[in-house]
Design brief:
mainly alpha; elongated
Length: 102
């Protein structure tokens, strides 16, 4: 006879909780910080650091880093949305929820 395997759910719950905290607290500041590095003023200098010339030298590194971090932040937000999405409808009737509330 096969013994029934018992799986621990704490890693999944920990991941869900961590992603939720990330999306609540850190998502907007990280996006703002990453976008700040892409802004340049009219004299072709970075608004984050006026001594840095835009699209030259170290600024290119920061641009690539900021775009990679933006993609990572969006992927984490997407994963959070998928983890907290209901997978089965409560009813097969599409108007049931609307009619029940009104």
């Amino acid at each position: 006879m096969c013994k029934e395997r018992k799986y621990s759910m704490w890693p999944i719950n920990y991941l869900k909780s961590s992603l939720l905290v990330f999306s609540w607290l850190f998502y907007e500041p990280i996006i703002e910080c990453m976008l700040q590095m892409t802004r340049c003023d009219g004299s072709n200098h970075s608004k984050a650091d006026p001594s840095m010339e835009c699209y030259a030298g170290v600024h290119i590194f920061f641009l690539v880093l900021s775009y990679v971090m933006l993609i990572l932040a969006l992927a984490i937000a997407f994963a959070t949305g998928i983890l907290y999405q209901k997978t089965e409808p409560a009813s097969s009737d599409a108007l049931a929820a609307y009619l029940f509330r009104h």
